[in-house]
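Support request, please re-run this one:
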Amino acid sequence: MKNRADLIFSLVILVAGLLVFLKSQAFPDLPEGHPGPGLFPAYIGGGLFICGLFLFINSFRIKIANRVDFSGSWTPVILILLLMIVFPFAYNLLGFFPVIAVAILLV
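Re-run finished. Output below.
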């Protein structure tokens, strides 16, 4: 059942990426070869198309292990969430370099 959902969602992503890419080609170009306003949407559409293509190919693979193992330690997750909360306050008090050094050492 999951493979069918992946297949349908991949087709939706493929079509959305293609439509975004084609619509971005309608934006005007800037003179002298500078990138125009359609460059970023073209990259986004191309990225969506490539991700949809990977999901489409992956939906035909046989899933051997669908079970996700959550038996690992939650310590790194909690530590990173705590750093995300503490970082802005410590940054204002101590500055960037000491805080980032401690954060890197902890992670």
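The mean pLDDT is 87. Residues 63 and 69 are 15 Å apart (CA to CA).
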